[in-house]
Amino acid sequence: MGLELYLDLLSQPCRAVYIFAKKNGIPFELRAVELLKGQQHSDAFVQVNPLRKVPALKDGDFTLAESVAILLYLSRKYKAPDHWYPQDLQAGARVDEYLAWQHTALRSSCSRAVWQKLLGPVLLGVQVPPETLASTLAELDRNLQLLEDKFLKDQAFLTGPHISVADLVAITELMHPVSAGCQVFKSRPKLAVWRQRVEAAVGEDLFQEAHAALMKAKDLPPLDLAMREKLKAAVQVLLQ
Ligand SMILES: N[C@@H](CCC(=O)N[C@@H](CS)C(=O)NCC(=O)O)C(=O)O
Questions:
Q1: Exposure winner among 71, 105, 122, 153, fewest CB in 10 A?
Q2: What is the pLDDT of residues 156-194, one digit of tens each?
Q3: 67 lines ligand 1 (CB under 6 A)
Q4: Prior bond of 55 cis (ω within 30°)
Q5: 58-92 pLDDT, tens per residue?
Q6: Among the atoms of ligand 1, which is closest to the Cα of residue 12?
Q7: Per residue in 85-118, pLDDT tens?
Q8: Is residue 1's pLDDT more than 90?
Q9: Closest to 236 measured CA to CA, from 151, 86, 89, 119
Q10: With a 6 A CB cut-off, is 170 part of the ligand 1 pocket?
Q11: How far is CA 153 from CA 67, 130, 146, 214, in A?
């Protein structure tokens, strides 16, 4: 069996992996893991990723969790063009710097924003207090400012003149609050132009395809009671 990618495109790190693999012509079997059906807890998937999270990769007998590790594995194994993850010591370190920062900063506020503003109400019937949402959106705003000031600056892409995996990880995060109606790019012209550059570099069709399920999330039916209770426990921390 060749390369298998276990993904749910509602998940932002899965979209980053999907876009990277497709854009680089990497052949893979897509193994859908539907988080809203709890398939990350199935016996078969737990064999692949005992952490019970997507994305996950299986390449023969080798299994791998964590989107950043998966992106770098694919980049090295398939010798993706250097700009995705530069060999140059300092250029590569810039990408590493972004990947390390985003996990606790931008990712956290994007996930909280989408759960509090969209997925919580739609899927779980949960409305968070307005002050909780306001505080999440203020934190998102602070992280967007850092994204602009510390990473993008006056460059074309986040880590230099060419697109890298950092841009894919960032854009797939930012589309989370966009899907919830947050005006992420409205008063941020530099970020808006960067988004256009990333979409153009990825290709409009692939970008739309990767985000189609997320953009329709607002039309999802509420979950059944049993699934709702399970999910509520899992995402409790994002709703506070
Ligand atoms: N640090 C991990 C995070 C993976 C992650 O949190 N995946 C979420 C979807 S975005 C998941 O599978 N959640 C299922 C669950 O927690 O039950 C990565 O970057 O791959």
A1: 153
A2: 999 999 999 999 999 999 999 999 999 999 999 999 999
A3: yes
A4: yes
A5: 999 999 999 999 999 999 999 999 999 999 999 99
A6: 10
A7: 999 999 999 999 999 999 999 999 999 999 999 9
A8: no
A9: 119
A10: no
A11: 25, 32, 10, 28
Which residue type, as a one-letter code, is found at position 65? A
Which residue's CA is the nearest one to ligand 1's atom 13?
A: 53
| Residue 227 beta carbon below 6 angstroms from any ligand 1 atom | no
| Orientation of helix 12-23 relative to helix 204-215, angle to 10° | 160
What is the whole-number distance in angstroms between the Cα of residue 135 and the centre of ligand 1?
23
CA of 53 to the centre of ligand 1 (A): 4
53 CB near ligand 1 (under 6 Å): yes
Rounded to two decimals, the pTM is 0.97
* Distance between CA atoms of residues 28 and 97, nearest Å: 28
